Amino acid sequence: MLAKSNAINRELSGINSMGVNGLEKSIRKSTTSMTNLERLTNKMRSHVEWMISATLSGALVIAPIAAVHSIADLEQEMAGMIQTLPQLHHNQQAVNQTATQFIGIAEQYGVGVDKIVEAGKLWSRGYKDVDDVMKLTELSAKLAVADLMDVGLANRAVESTINSFGRQADAVNFATHVTDAWTNVAHNAQSSATDLATAMMRSGAAAHAVGVSFDMATAMASTMIKTTGLQGENVGNALKSIFSSLQSDKAIADLQKLGIAVYQFNADGTREFRDLEKVMVDLMLASHDTQESMAKTLQNISGGKFQWSKVAAMFSDYKDFIHAYTLSVTSTNFAEGQVGAQIDTINRRLEQLKQSLIGVLN
Question: What does the pLDDT average to over 82-89?
Fold first, then answer.
């Protein structure tokens, strides 16, 4: 009896030696596990209900298996993030928080977390604030989902456009407008966002160099894509040729023959080039209204015989240009509305479930 009593006392002493802090820690750990389980259960219930309504609930077995494999990939990808973001150096808590944010973006947009982290790494090469990197990464995912575009292309195109138009100082705001503009134009002006993006990657710097705005360049690209049926790479090359040639002696002479003012005079009598956006709008009007052949003129303006037919097609469709320009300028928050429609698909739902599992298991 005494031996049993001593054993019980030793056990009680062992429990007491844990202290209140140890007991509270155990309780918190248990509570956290239950919270994670409840969160996962709720997410799975939502996805299962949607899948059952689509009669494809059997496909759910794919997500848990893929999630387990993705955790190791996530850890490897995050090692690359540590190299590009100084705030993460020797700070495991910051690394964990960043990984959690990436998982949240992946889950929200139904995109693989590996693609999201890769986008984040690309952004972090030029932007060192973690919050900015997260916002820019989310915009890449939003553009990719809203317009069925590859995340990597969305990332490169938006970053290239920011750099081309010299908007690094307000990168997040400008990237938001780029995302909304391309989505709005793509959905309402018969030109894909992928083609708009690739066209801008090739012509954006040349447009900015001669004072053509992003919205103007987007409208020109959209009009040429629609009227010619060409892919973005070809359209971008054509626009680059136009922007590079518009201030040549031959182009200036031809514009003046059409009655289009190329120069403006300042109050002190000095002469400077007129706003090229206005010059190009005047040229579109002249091309639309004249009955004469514009072949020679447009050949000089477009930089050669290989581009003039594309330029002619664009300049002759003034109404489509105005429509696309208006869509680009008035596109605020348009992409957000398109994400909801695109996310409600089988593949996106499965990817969301997979990322939910990664978030809990990780």
Answer: 83
Check: CB of residue 51 under 8 Å from CB of residue 353. no
> What DSSP string describes 10-63?
HHHHHHHHHHHHHHHHHHHHHHHHHHHHHHHHHHHHHHHHHHHHTT-GGGGGHH
Residue 85 burial (10 A CB sphere; 0-12, 13-18, 19+): buried
Q: Which residues of 284-309 are buried (b: 16+ CB within 10 A; e: fewer)?
A: bebbeeeeeebeebbbbbbbeeebbe
* CA 196 – CA 192 distance, rounded (Å): 6
Are the beta carbons of 348 and 56 closer than 8 angstroms?
Answer: no
Task: Decide if 185 contacts 328 (C-beta within 8 A).
Answer: yes
pLDDT digits (tens, 9 = 90+) for 286-329: 776 654 556 666 666 666 555 556 666 676 677 888 899 999 99
What is the spatial distance between Cα 206 and Cα 92, in angstroms, rounded to a whole number? 43
d(CA 215, CA 236): 15
Residue that the structure tokens 């000095």 belong to: 270
Which helix (H) or strand (E) segment is 273 a member of? strand 271-273
In whole angstroms, give the CA distance from residue 86 to residue 130.
Answer: 10
- Distance (Å, rounded) from C-alpha 339 to C-alpha 139? 11
85 contacts 134 by C-beta, under 8 angstroms: no
Contact call for residues 274 and 264 (beta carbons, < 8 A): yes
Comparison of pLDDT for 181 and 278, the residue scoring more:
181
DSSP 345: S
pTM (predicted TM-score): 0.74
**Half-sphere exposure of residue 189: CA atoms within 13 angstroms, side-chain side:** 32
Is it the case that residue 31 has pLDDT exceeding 50?
no
